[in-house]
Design a protein that fits this description.
The chain has 241 residues and is α+β, with helices and mostly antiparallel strands. It contains 6 helices and 13 strands. A hairpin with a 5-residue loop joins strand 6 and strand 7. The two termini are 17 Å apart.
Length: 241
């Protein structure tokens, strides 16, 4: 699809992945564009039409999750749509793993032999609690055999957090302090991509690439909850051919 991002990563043949933008689609303001979130107040018929457009490029309907900013990772091949979880994986070909985002970080994962894929919804709450670690554990492969792609998320010059958020990350990993810069009014600017890279590196995952995109600053391309409040959702998807 011309309105999607194809990950630039060394994934093996047999692994397919993409991340949508807000471009295209039929939703009207304030969800204008290619909104794929059915839980944000948009016209259900518009969401269904957008999902039907997406489905044309997929082997099956994505396994849509009910995301709660947690760390649960489920096997998409045996999971009912709407299950509460923030990550999924599969070893079955033709099963599409998906997460919805609008500032949070989508993390795509696969192994070097194209036997397992996974995706995690990593907002700061899930990231600090261990959603990446949970996903990698569920995939059942050592980090040295895995690679990751970090999708579009709020950028380090736009993601303002309180001191308590910084303390949670630094309490887990003192060197995570390098991912925070002093902001205004006692706040901190947070680099969520760097924090995710640190978590992946600690798991032995060295092959990490990512999209150089800020969802908040690029209103033409991305939905952003921080920017707009009421807004749509993009999706990041991965499957085995």
């Amino acid at each position: 699809m011309s309105n999607c991002i194809l990950p630039d990563w060394p994934a093996p043949l047999g692994v397919r992945a993409l991340a949508t933008t807000r471009r295209g689609g039929v939703s009207r303001a304030p969800w204008r564009g290619f909104n794929l979130g059915a839980h944000v107040g948009d016209d259900p018929q518009a969401v269904a039409a957008n999902r039907a457009l997406l489905r044309r490029d997929l082997p099956a309907e994505p396994v849509w999750l009910s995301q709660v900013h947690g760390i649960r990772c489920v096997d998409a091949a045996i999971t009912e749509p709407g299950t509460e979880a923030d990550a999924s994986f599969t070893r079955q070909r033709g099963v599409v793993c998906a997460v919805l985002t609008a500032d949070c970080l989508p993390v795509l994962l696969c192994d070097e032999r194209a036997t397992v894929v996974g995706v995690a919804h990593a907002g700061w709450r899930g990231l600090v609690a261990g959603v990446i670690e949970s996903t990698v554990a569920a995939m059942g492969e050592p980090g040295t055999r895995l690679m990751a792609w970090l999708g579009p998320a709020i950028g380090p010059r736009a993601f303002e957090v309180g001191g308590e958020v910084r303390e949670l990350f630094v309490g887990h990993d003192p060197d995570a302090a390098s991912a925070f810069a002093v902001g205004a009014d006692g706040k901190w600017l947070c680099d969520i991509h760097q924090l995710a890279r640190r978590r992946l590196d600690a798991l032995g995952i060295r092959r990490i690439t990512g999209a150089d995109s800020c969802t908040l600053s690029d209103a033409a391309s991305f939905f952003s909850y921080r920017r707009d409040g009421v807004t749509g959702r993009m999706t990041s998807l991965i499957w085995l051919d």
